[in-house]
Amino acid sequence: MNLPNKICMARILMCPVFFYLFISGNYLASAILYLIAASTDWLDGYIARKYNLVTDLGKFLDPIADKILVLSGMLIAIFLGWGGKITVWSAFFILTREFIVTGFRCLAAGKNCVIAADMWGKVKTVVQDVAIFVMLVEYAVFETCYSVYLLAVSAILAVISAVNYIYKNKEVLK
Question: Is 144 helix (H, G, I), strand (E, B) or coil?
Fold first, then answer.
C-alpha cells in the first residue's frame, strides 16, 4: 500500500474518532480532527498525482473516505438541528448526491470506465468541508449557526455537480 492510500485509510479511521469526539462533548477537538481529515483528501490526491502513485485501490478508497467523512458531518448537522429545515434539506441533497454519483460510478466501473472527479465536484467538496468545519467551530466556540448558509450553498453545489457529472458522462447510461 503506497503513501496516498495510507493517508486515505487514515482519513477513514479518523471519521469514527471525529464523530466520537463530538458526541462525547469534545467539540473543538472534533472540529480540529475534522479539518485534519478533510485536508488529507487534498494531500493524498496531490501526492498520488505528483509522484505518479495513482492506483485502482486509491480510486476506490478515496470516494469512500469522502462519503464517510461527509456522512459523519451531516449526521452531526442534523443532530444539532441548527437552521431547521435548511439543514435537513441541505443534508438530504448532499447525501442524495453522494449516493447518485457513487451509483453512477459503479455503473461506469461495470463498463470498465473510470470517471474522475471534475471541478464542480471539487468545489462542492471544499465548500462542504468548510461548512462542516465552521459548523463544528461555531458549536464549540461561538454558539452561532451561520454555517447553515454555507451548508445550503454546498447543497446547491451538490445538485449542480451531480447533474454536470451525469451530463458529461451520459454515454455510461447507454
Answer: coil
What is the C-alpha separation between 174 and 172, in angstroms, rounded? 6
pLDDT bin (cut points 50, 70, 90) of residue 129 is very high
d(CA 80, CA 153): 18
Report pLDDT digits (tens) over 19-58. 999 999 999 999 999 999 999 989 998 999 999 998 888 8
Is the pTM above the cut of 0.85?
A: yes
Collect all residues with Cβ–Cβ distance below 8 Å to 56 and sequence separation of at least 6.
none
- Residue at grid coordinates 454519483: 101
Classify each residue of 128-155 as buried b or exposed e, where b means 16 or more C-beta atoms within 10 Å of its C-beta: bbbbbbbbbbbbbeeeebebbebbbbbb
In this prediction, residue 97 carries a pLDDT of 93
Structural domains of the chain, ranges and CATH numbers in brackets:
3-173 (1.20.120.1760)
Q: How far apart are CA 163 and CA 38, in angstroms?
A: 24
CA 40 to chain CA centroid, Å, is: 11
